[in-house]
Amino acid sequence: MEMEHINENTIRVIIENEDLAERGITFLDLLGNHREIESFFYSILEEVDIEDEFKSSEAVTFQVLPKNDGLELFISKNLSPEDISKMNDSTEFETNDFDQLIRQQILANSEMVEEEPVDNRVRVFQLNSFEDMIELASYHFLDEAWCDLYLLNEKYYLQVVFDPEVYGDYALADVTAEILEYTQDSAVSTEMLDEYGKLLMRRDAIEITRSYFN
């Protein structure tokens, strides 16, 4: 992890995949978990703010920018209201921008490390009925994946994001085959689901279904 002082009010931190691994964190851990994101940012601040110049400030802001092999984190203090309003929306923990950034990093990491088509890491499956979702949730092979359940045109769709650090080549092939026992491949894109579908369960669709119906 590299750190530099841009000025007296801003620190720039470069966080690479290896830095996350050293802390026992994956991009998937941060995906959608706003408390985990905020805790992670402040843990980085603890490491780089050796002289406690920033921790003593009442207003600390974080700005995240994408990087091919990780993230760039800008930590700022004593910003004016005008400066804060100009900050990138990805610093807002209540938006989905950071989630989208993390998804991009998962896919980029997959492409870089395994040289596998990116589409294999984000799959959309169509369910014939919700009963198939209940049956699928009775198994545990998707417990480490990000699973969203959508309703579009009165049909159920399961969007799955596979973390390459968890699902290697063989594991991904095996899990996909098991999923297809209860679903079918779909030509519906993730963009179509995001824009036109109704999100019923976010991230933990398998666990949520299991807790209510199994």
Automatic annotation (TrEMBL):
A single GO molecular function term of this UniProt record: protein-macromolecule adaptor activity
Record remark: domains: The N-terminal domain probably binds unfolded/aggregated proteins; the C-terminal domain interacts with ClpC.
Record-stated family: Belongs to the MecA family.
Function: Enables the recognition and targeting of unfolded and aggregated proteins to the ClpC protease or to other proteins involved in proteolysis.
The protein's assembly and partners: Homodimer.
Name of the molecule in the record: Adapter protein MecA
Originating species: Enterococcus hermanniensis
